[in-house]
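// run 5 | inverse folding | seed 20
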């Protein structure tokens, strides 16, 4: 698809935090512009003089005046935080430059979202992540380029969703768009990062519950891969339609991520069927490259009978009047 390019250093500006900081729906100045102006006024009323933008936002200023919005403002002003300014006019000029960059990045990202939606039924892969810093956007852009630009995948011409290139008209629309993309994509790539996130966890859960292959890439903390693979009980969810247990494929090796995608789309996945050493009749299906359990069969009779009694029961026929 002819996606609009956005420089990696500018992609953080399409985030929801940046949009809330730069948007001007009902006023002549954005939240960030107003905060910068107020910070300069306080500085000028005090010692005044040349100062870094970061220092204008230091101390208790943001917490006292923009509680709950302080991190978003710092995030959105990242490009100019280390710039020196000697006057409010100079500060305004620096803000205008980054505001214009925001507008351009936002426009391009909106065009990209329309393109993604136009081809959503042919979406091959969805990348689920959480990006809280400018470096997060840089790393995710690099990861998408490395994975989907790999020679092993080029011949497949995969259509994948790059989260650093898309923006929506508000967080509510963004949620609807992402749910639709997860529903349509054939596989989901989950990037663990260094912190948990409700958003990406929800997306991975949706994909597993739909019976889709989900690859967890634990790039920052290799120990997290072992935790997800061997300890966390909800890295295996139930495909709601069938009741089959679906497990995530977990790795901390980017090369394995590429190889897993190649195998999935070439129908060349390899598995090992094993019986639990201490529980007769307890079966696991392991993905051979990572050792991840992707299917299982319990020997707990009560659990099994209760489970399948629920899935196999036929709903009773009811009249409309029965509901009143």
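// decoded
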């Amino acid at each position: 698809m002819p996606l609009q390019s956005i420089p990696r250093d500018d992609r953080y500006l399409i985030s929801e935090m940046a949009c809330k900081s730069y948007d001007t729906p009902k006023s002549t100045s954005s939240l960030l512009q107003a905060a910068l102006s107020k910070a300069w006024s306080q500085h000028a009323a005090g010692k005044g003089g040349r100062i870094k933008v970061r220092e204008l936002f230091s101390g208790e200023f943001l917490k006292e005046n923009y509680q709950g919005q302080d991190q978003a403002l710092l995030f959105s002003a990242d490009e100019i935080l280390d710039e020196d300014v000697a006057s409010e006019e100079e500060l305004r000029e620096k803000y205008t430059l980054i505001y214009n960059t925001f507008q351009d990045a936002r426009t391009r990202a909106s065009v990209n979202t329309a393109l993604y939606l136009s081809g959503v039924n042919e979406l091959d892969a969805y990348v689920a992540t959480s990006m809280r810093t400018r470096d997060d956007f840089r790393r995710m852009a690099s990861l998408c380029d490395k994975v989907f630009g790999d020679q092993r995948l080029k011949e497949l011409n995969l259509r994948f969703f790059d989260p650093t290139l898309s923006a929506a008209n508000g967080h509510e629309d963004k949620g609807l768009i992402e749910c639709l993309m997860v529903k349509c994509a054939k596989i989901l790539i989950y990037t663990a990062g260094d912190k948990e996130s409700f958003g990406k966890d929800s997306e991975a859960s949706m994909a597993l519950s739909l019976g889709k292959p989900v690859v967890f890439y634990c790039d920052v903390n290799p120990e997290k891969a072992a935790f997800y693979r061997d300890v966390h009980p909800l890295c295996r969810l139930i495909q709601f339609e069938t009741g089959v247990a679906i497990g995530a494929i977990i790795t901390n090796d980017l090369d394995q991520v590429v190889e897993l995608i190649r195998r999935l789309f070439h129908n060349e996945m390899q598995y090992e069927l094993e019986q639990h050493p201490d529980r007769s009749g307890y079966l696991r299906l392991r993905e051979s490259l990572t050792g991840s359990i992707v299917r299982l069969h319990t020997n707990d009779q009560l659990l099994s009978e209760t489970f399948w009694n629920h899935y196999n029961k036929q709903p009773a026929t009811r009249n409309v009047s029965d509901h009143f």
